[in-house]
Amino acid sequence: MMRVLRWTLAFLLCAVAAHAQGDFTVATTTIAAQKAVFATIEASHVVPARTRIGGTLVSFLVQDGALVQAGQEIAMVADPAMAQQLAALDADIAAARAQLAQARIDFVRAQKLIRSGAVSQSVFDQAQTGLAVAQNTLKAKIAAHAALAQQIGEGAVLAPVAGRVLTTPVTSGTVVLAGDAVATIAAQGYVLRLDVPERHAAYLHVGDPVRLDENGHAAFGTITLIYPQITNGLVQADATAPDLGNYFVGGRVLVWIYAGSRAGIIIPERFIETRFGLDYVRLQTKAGVIAVPIQRGMPQPTPAMPDGVEILSGLAAGDVLVPPESAP
User: Fold this and answer.
1) Which domains, and CATH codes, for the chain?
2) Which residues fall within 8 angstroms of residue 68, CB to CB, at 6 or more apart?
3) N or C: which end of the chain has fewer CB within 10 A?
């Protein structure tokens, strides 16, 4: 048998009918029993940003809590020895260019002289070989320069994923090795990690909603994963909810989960008026509108009735309520 009114109806959608004038017809509905548990805001993935070369951290462009995009430069590592090697290669390239220019002059001269028979074939061949050697030497120096420049460019530490910087264990001036982590980044897409007592584990199902109460407002999420292991009497489950990126990673949030169901009555709180510490509703009868005392229960907000309140006594199915402001 399927679960009785699976909490997928976003925490008990009430089977109620409302009149066009704003009246409310009371109906019995199935109320989901709720269990309060603590959840921790966790990043779905925490990825380290690592250096690709060793050297000194010369700049750090982000701080804890900063939002970064994938591929964004967050730090720069430089090796002074590489800078000196690059300067030496610049000098070698300049020398190779001069040698190439001289080799071309020698080759052109040898071409002219061999036509007139002033030099032997061996002298011409030597000039031709010298030109080829000079050309290849310049190409080798330029390639070495490009390889070293590429290696120096790899000193830029890039964010591996888009997200929020959690920790920066190093500062500018720190000596690092290739592969050292200079920051940890929480990938976008936070989750609620619930710790549920094992006696309630039987009620957990992927797709069930959960409710967060923050600053007097209810927000609803959905269970996405249930871990198949019990640790210290607790079952862990992951849930998603809107605007989790506004929380601190590691923060604890009170979350309500499904823990069974029962029959009951829920009405919007706007139909309740409190006088001298007692709660009343305006009831439409054949004789007119009368005030009836009720016993208020726990709030039962739903997406369809955000101000829903459970009524423990005083009302029955079929009663018609009138808004307090419209009653005489």
Assistant:
1) 17-44+189-326 (2.40.30.170), 46-185 (2.40.50.100)
2) 62, 74, 159, 162, 163, 164, 165, 185
3) N
